[in-house]
Design brief:
This protein is an alpha/beta fold. The protein is built from 8 helices and 12 strands. Strands 2-1-3-4-5 form a 5-stranded parallel sheet, sandwiched between helices. The protein has a 4-stranded antiparallel sheet with strand order 6-7-8-9, with helices on one face.
Amino acid sequence: MSHILVIDDDIHIGNLLQEALEGEGYRVSRAYSGTEAVLALDRGRPDLILLDLMLPGLSGEQVLPKLAGIPVIVVSAKADVDSKTALLLGGAADYVTKPFALRELLARVAVRLREAAAHPGAALAFGSLRLDPDARSVCVHGGDVRLTRTEYAILKLLMANPAQVVTKSRLLDEIGRDTPDCTESSLKTHVSNLRRKLRDAGAGDCIESVWGIGFKMAANPPKP
């Protein structure tokens, strides 16, 4: 079930969207301000976001750069071409002008989710930490972080499941085929080296150990 985050301070529109999306089988969560939206990302990464622009706290334009790696459909009353162009170039996947036809919006949601599923190499983001699977690169605050093949594989799996504890056995099963140097006895060392490199790059302690089980991304991501 795809998870969609609706960011809109208009309760009526938000309720309308939630009812329609849940009717299509999606799981929906809500945020009523830009600030609340950023906090909501700490609790889990949605599959798609519907973003209003005129929000209390952080505006939609300010929130958009923090949503890297997540398909975003802007839903706004701003209809001028310059606004649309700037937001699409700034990372939005699509732009729908209010008032909108609900059937059209649902179709656009389905298309963007289908595109995301067909291109699993989309960039992953966790605060200021970015991982680009296509380029096999990792950066913090825009600066590159050099990781070994095993460290990169561990980080990619953790960032792809930011709200979950990834067990040691799952880590070994999913990355073991590509990283034969990662064994049960060496996993702790690889994670320790990865943490050190991310900390030195300015990402702080963004990986947590869950004693006896495995690892997860920290509750509070590094600030962008």
